[in-house]
Specification:
The complex is a heterodimer of chains A (362) and B (224).
Chain A lengths: L1 H21 L6 E5 L3 E3 L2 E3 L3 E2 L2 H6 L4 E11 L15 E5 L4 H5 L3 E5 L9 E4 L1 H6 L7 E4 L2 E10 L3 H4 L1 E5 H7 L5 E2 L1 E6 L5 H11 L3 E4 L1 H44 L1 H9 L4 H39 L10 H4 L2 H18 L1 H8 L3 H8 L1
Parallel strand pairs in A: 6-11, 8-10
Antiparallel strand pairs in A: 1-13, 1-14, 2-3, 4-12, 5-6, 5-13, 7-10, 8-11, 9-10
Chain B lengths: L2 E12 L2 E13 L4 E5 L6 H8 L7 E6 L2 E2 L5 H10 L1 E4 L11 H11 L4 H14 L15 H12 L6 E5 L7 H18 L2 E6 L2 H6 L2 E6 L2 E4 L2
Parallel strand pairs in B: 3-8, 3-9, 6-7, 7-8
Antiparallel strand pairs in B: 1-2, 1-4, 4-5, 9-10
Helix pairs in contact in B: 3-4, 3-5, 4-5, 5-6
The chains are: A alpha+beta (362), B alpha/beta (224).
Chain lengths: 362, 224
């Protein structure tokens, strides 16, 4: 059960993060370099000249164009590089923050006000991990940057983000006049899919992805993870059922004398079934609870190992990593599986021959 | 309760051979009698008592309980007779190890659906009667062998059984404790008018029994 909770909770969390990323640019077209690998809206690698912004603005059905420089695996001082999807920096032209963060507010400080600003806004998880407050200085790629604000968000993605003016990002990561994604908002008259086709036609080196296309890119990954989850769950639940059956059969066989005595003093077959089923129910309940406890710790540990985020930072958001509904599902499934596993031993307990058992036990 | 046994036979198959543990036994037990059945090990005493206690089915022959043929009764009716009318005392006591002395005595009353209060009051009274007032909450492993047998006797009386079937109740006990248990069974028989059927080697029981039977190779013989 521990393994089920740890593995399934971790993969489910991964899926949640990916699904969460899709809502960032809802109704918008994401333009990236042709051929790059995309996870939901975000490109892994691939560079576009910043001049692509002007080309896009020239298209008559385009309402707004916001370029971004999205960078993974940035290095805070003395820290190891961590893999996706945590720890990202995003450069956006000042004043366009809402394109990415939506209605997210700052719990402290303010957004950088000018392109020349060397100030950044950080996610609450990063701020907590590195004890950042407004006014703290952080070093990324040998650039000293000042924290101007800390976001108030529960988004796993934004919680681990550093957001800064586009120019500052280009300078910090040495991508002058370059971006790696552009967010295009179609105007009222435009059809999102038609516009994305048109962009690809007019600018040969880009991919323009509508909501539908982004979903289609991610769908196979999510469905594969889902299938693996189901497979892991099924196999582990089956193993649990076998184990509980074995434990219950051993339990019944070790207490044959007790069950025979119960029948001899007048217990009904139904009573014996209830005794065995209650025991397997309790095995399931307590096994499930213990499995949940260890599995949750396991999921947090996996998350911590995978992202490099200290495990203590996961504790306040433990129900995001292992949601209550998932805990309930696991507990109900475990108890159900245990009760099913109790059927064979309970039948075995009622079918024993009292005299033979009592004779053998003397 | 009257018990009448006619041509009772019980055979067991062991590997390829067949063993006749009880052979053509005839017996009549009337209310409030104290009956002793004596025989060497393997003579068929326990098999006969299990048949009388309705724990086992005969290969052939009949057992009548108050003139009702037990072979015609269903599992539920046999269970009710075991629960309410016949109390079984095992040589090895067969107390449930996870329950206290009190809970072991309450168990048949619980199975009979009596109220918790009634269970508790009666179990305490029965344990007091068998001299275990100070041992109510002890588990079997915390009791001496004699005390365990007393609890087993109290359990057999929990639902006011009309018959106590005791399979070598003093077999595991030292002579002093055995004497006490015999006295206890005798008092139950005389004071409560409970029929007692005992399989035993114990000469003391033989002395106090109203009727003595011997059993050898599964054949029962009336002695006096």
């Amino acid at each position: 059960m521990t393994i089920t909770v740890a593995v399934v909770a971790s993969t489910t969390r991964y899926m949640t993060v990916i699904e969460e990323m899709n809502i960032f640019f809802n109704g918008k077209i994401v333009v990236v370099a042709r051929g790059v690998f995309i996870i939901q809206a975000f490109p892994i690698g691939g560079i576009l000249p910043e001049s692509v912004v002007d080309t896009l603005k020239d298209i008559d059905t385009v309402e707004t164009v916001v370029p971004m420089l999205f960078n993974l695996n940035f290095k805070l001082e003395n820290e190891e590089v961590q893999p996706f999807p945590f720890d990202v920096t995003i450069g956006i032209p000042t004043g366009n923050w809402s394109v990415l963060v939506g209605s997210t507010t700052l719990k402290n400080g303010s957004w950088p006000s000018a392109e020349s600003d060397s100030r950044v806004v950080v996610g609450p998880s990063l701020a907590g991990q590195y004890n950042m407050t407004v006014g703290s200085t952080i070093e990324i790629e040998k650039h000293e940057l000042e924290v101007s604000g800390i976001m108030e968000t529960r988004s796993a993605f934004l919680s681990r983000s550093v957001i800064m003016p586009l120019k500052l990002a280009q300078e910090t990561f040495r991508y002058p006049m370059q971006v790696n994604m552009v967010i295009v908002t179609p105007n009222e008259k435009a059809d999102e899919n038609e516009l994305s086709d048109r962009i690809e036609k007019e600018i040969s080196y880009v991919m323009a992805l509508s909501d539908l296309e982004r979903n289609e890119l991610t769908e196979p990954i999510l469905s594969q993870v889902e299938t693996w989850n189901m497979g892991i769950k099924s196999v582990l639940f089956f193993l649990s059922m076998v184990l509980v059956t074995v434990v219950a059969v051993m339990n019944v066989s070790e207490r044959r004398k007790d069950f025979a005595t119960l029948v001899a003093i007048g217990a009904s077959r139904g009573f014996i079934v209830r005794v065995v089923m209650t025991e397997t129910f309790l095995i399931g309940l307590f096994g499930g609870l213990i499995g949940l406890a260890f599995g949750t710790i396991g999921a947090l540990w996996l998350g911590s190992t995978y992202t490099g985020i200290p495990i203590t930072l996961f504790f306040p958001g433990v129900f995001e990593v292992v949601p209550l509904s998932f805990m309930l599902e696991i507990l109900v499934s475990t108890v159900t599986v245990s009760c099913i596993a109790g059927v064979i031993p309970s039948i075995a307990a009622t079918r024993m021959n009292i005299t033979e058992v009592l004779r053998a036990e003397y | 309760m009257r018990i009448k046994i006619e041509d009772l036979t019980r055979k067991f198959r062991v590997g390829s051979s067949e063993i006749t543990a009880v052979s053509m036994v005839n017996l009549e037990v009337n209310e409030a009698e104290f009956i002793a059945i004596v025989g060497p090990s393997g003579s068929g005493k326990s098999t006969l008592l299990n048949l009388i206690g309705l724990n086992d089915q005969p290969t052939c022959g009949k057992i009548f309980i108050d003139d009702v043929d037990a072979s015609l009764l269903g599992g539920g009716e046999l269970r009710k007779i075991r629960l309410f009318r016949i109390g079984f005392v095992f040589q090895t006591f067969n107390l449930l190890p996870t329950l206290s002395a009190l809970e072991n005595v309450e168990l048949p009353m619980f199975l009979a659906g009596k109220s918790q209060k009634e269970q508790r009051e009666k179990a305490v009274r029965l344990l007091e009667n068998v001299g275990l007032r100070d041992r109510l909450y002890h588990r079997p492993k915390e009791l001496s062998i004699g005390e365990m047998q007393r609890v087993a006797i109290a359990r057999a009386l929990a639902n006011d059984s009309e018959v106590i079937v005791a399979d070598e109740p003093t077999g595991e006990l030292d002579s002093k404790t055995a004497k006490e248990i015999i006295g206890l069974l005798y008092n139950i028989n005389r004071n409560r008018k409970t029929t007692v059927i005992v399989a035993t080697h114990d000469e003391k029981i033989v002395e106090i029994a109203d009727m003595l039977y011997t059993i050898r190779d599964g054949k029962l013989k009336f002695e006096h």
